[in-house]
Design brief:
about 210 residues, mainly beta, 4-stranded antiparallel sheet, signal, disordered N terminus, single chain, WG_beta_rep, 13 strands
Amino acid sequence: MKLKLTITLFFIAFSLVTHSQTVKNIDQVAPFSEDLAAIRKGDQWGFINKEGTLVIDFRDDLVWDKNVDDSKFGQLSRPHPLFENGMCLIYSTGEEGIPMYGFIDTTGKIAIEPEYLNITSFDNGLALGILCTKTFKGQNEFKLNIFEYKFSEVLIDTKGEIMEFIGRRDNILMTPRRYEQPNLRSKMLSGDLLAVWSKEKKWEVRKLEL
């Protein structure tokens, strides 16, 4: 009787463990990257580990694009979410309704706040992005808030620290009807070589001192 009870409990426990690792009704499964694979339900994505366990729950702020444009640098070239250098791109739309980009870590926590208008994934611990700095300046006569925006193309590390200031970016309109996502004008060539598109519409190569 005791043996029968033990066997029964074993099969119940095994069934519960097996069931807990089953993720059903998935629309898309992406390849593994850094031991995590993105899975999609509708427009939400989550991540499973190599045991098939859902380790980051489904969410709607992960960056992906059904219609990938390979000619673009940054978030426009991402067919599905993935982790690179322990970081995965997310986005958030603020009061203006304009998407800002940041990163989560492998626990699903925000590691870099969404404050970039465009940004690449991390490679060798570095990413290129267009940082948007927003400063409250007061209210106008109609009691509407007035903000000043500044834009900078920068090179950052996985802690969000600016490693290299590449240049100011101008003529970016922060109203939803007129906003167009700015393209990055720089790209990493190697660990310490950076190519920058200049005002003369020519590439220049800079050697970084990191």
